[in-house]
């Protein structure tokens, strides 16, 4: 019978040696984000019968590459995972290769389908498509990286990002049908087509984040 939780010794290792590294990253990729991706990955893995230890570890390592250049963080994260010899205690060489590829494939802007079900799991789990969460994280990123912009500048940057990533013509792809993210993405897309309503939400959250 398949266990419904990852191994306790693996969880202890990840919680003490891996997850604390997320404290060094921005608000959109902090410990709260990492634990949310882990929780969603495990839920999806249970639903489709995937290996929980693999799904758990992939989720834990998926953004560690943010210690380097953001644009290639998914590749760096994969290198960090495959280079961590401590993981050989729990996983075979073939499993580790698949896990490395899954981490590399998690990025929303990836143009190709993830190479395994584990890549699809972490890619899906990494999508925080709750509309308010998406809007808040986009505002947080703008404030952190474009401090020279005024409110209108942030609004323009925000809407450009919304259209490029989340609109019906955006680059985001969902890989597991019938997921909660599918429903939430449709909600967000509706809001994108109603700029006046979106501006109300933006203004409220923008003021919250500037305080």
List keywords for this structure.
211 residues; mainly alpha
Characterization of this structure:
By secondary structure, this protein is an all-alpha fold. Helix content is 62%, strand content 0%. It is built from ten helices and no strands. Helix 4 packs antiparallel against helix 5 (93-104) and helix 5 packs across helix 6 (117-125). It starts with 7 loop residues before the first helix and ends with a helix.
- Structural class per helix/strand content? mainly alpha
* Spatial gap, N to C terminus: 51 Å
Q: Mean pLDDT, nearest integer? A: 93
SSE pattern, N- to C-terminal: HHHHHHHHHH
Pick out the low-confidence regions: none
User: Helix amount, in percent?
Assistant: 55-70%
Number of strands: 0
* Overall spatial form: globular
- Rg from Cα: 18 Å
Largest sheet, strands/sense/barrel: none
Number of DSSP helical runs: 10
Strand content: under 5%
SSE layout:
Elements: H1 8-18, H2 31-48, H3 52-61, H4 73-83, H5 93-104, H6 117-125, H7 131-145, H8 151-165, H9 180-192, H10 195-210
Helix pairs in contact: 1-3, 2-3, 2-6, 3-5, 3-6, 4-5, 5-6, 7-8, 7-10
